Amino acid sequence: MASSLHHLRVRLLLLLVALCLVLVSGASAWPSWPWRGAGAGGRHDYRDALSKCILFFEGQRSGRLPASQRAAWRGDSGESDGRAAGADLEGGYYDAGDNVKFGFPMAFTTTMLAWSVLEFGDDMPREERGHAEDAVRWGTDYLLKTLAHPGVIFMQVGDPWKDHKCWERPEDMDTLRTVYNVSTGRPGSEVAGETAAALAAASMVFRDGGDREYAELLLANAKKAFEFADTYRGAYSDDPGLRAGGCPFYCDFDGYQDELLWGAAWLRRASGEDAFQEYIQINGKTLGAEDNSNEFGWDNKHAGLNVLVSKEFIDGEALTMQSYKESADNFVCTLIPESSSPHIEYTPGGMIYKPGGSNMQHVTSISFLLLTYAKYLDKTSHTVNCGDISVGPDTLRLQAKKQVDYLLGDNPMKMSYMVGYGDRYPQRIHHRGSSLPSIKSHPERMGCKDGTPYYESSSSNPNPLVGAVVGGPGEDDVYEDDRADFRKSEPTTYINAPLVGVLAYFVGNPDPGHVKH
Predict the structure, then answer these.
(1) Contact at 8 Å (CB) between 71 and 58?
(2) Superkingdom of the source (predicted)?
């Protein structure tokens, strides 16, 4: 008993000393969490995480797979997609754990992959940059096909309601491959605008990479998609037929106006043409440019738009864009606990949290914007004014690092939320192909309901989808690793896409306090 009391006194004394040291040092009020996960005992291996993050996209491929395919458990699928509509829509990506190709989030995924390479490609090892460019091209090759027929843009392949009733491999799928398209009579400015953004951003990737002919093709089609989006304005989810296929999975909840500005902003950056800057200046207010938001993802582009457009103001090239810098600052201030701004929610463990499921999409996309904005600010003396405090680039980088380190294992569960990274990671992700026997080891066809026992099984997935980042824990930092809980256990392409850029940055700058300039 006496010994126990002695040990208790010693522990209390040590805690008191630690608290005094924090107070004396004037430590920041940023949350600081003592646990270490996959990187315990040292830094995280960001290069390994980056490699796996990019590899994930090969597991999501639709169509005939190339000889260079590294996710060897996958096979060809969806080779006849589009045929019923008289179109070639083979290729592209399955958005998540199902076998549907949704054009809206696929275009956003491609935009973010391209933006990742543009901003942080120089931090990528050469081989990984090549793989990242391959991932961009797999997306753009498909998006070009969606624009190949005059007067329409193909926005989806697969009936999601019928697809979701089956648990089967993409190689076996026999559900209806219904083709959905927007047209001059059934507009879809959000799909067309995001497609324009994706092709414009990607054109810069391939122009820098030396494939100028492909870059010019992408830019020309980006202009074509944008003209369609702007001329025939409207949201696809307002059309009953398109709504039946796209909703509630990818309804346009935030309107199409942000995609028009987003597409114009990327065309301005890719082409340098003044017409697109003038479009933003003339239409900004009516298209909701002043709508401040601390969200950025496949549906809401405002925070990303503000960061992207503010670059020209920060660089001193477009002083008329000051309002976008102010809006970007307002976004950043919502992430700073010390600021007087209304704050974004954090879990007790320090993860950015927004209700609705698939939370890691917010973690990765917001972290990407923090690093990108820090890069823009670094070139000048600009800072972020958050009321009584002024925030510099290093603070933004540290916040992004805390988010990515949480994802990789520095969290209360002490697990990585990326499949294949670290010693402990999700084993039962909500993903058809990953959870069923590979067509390579089980070539016999598996029908719609043949996969149900695997879905209901508590066994680990037989084909690890290496690099997949799941939706992640809830507001209590708890993750149950339950295949049926798709809000937490399902990976998506738009979780990984911005993470490619985030991890690339930390490969080149593992200590954000000592940044390479």
Answers:
(1) yes
(2) Eukaryota
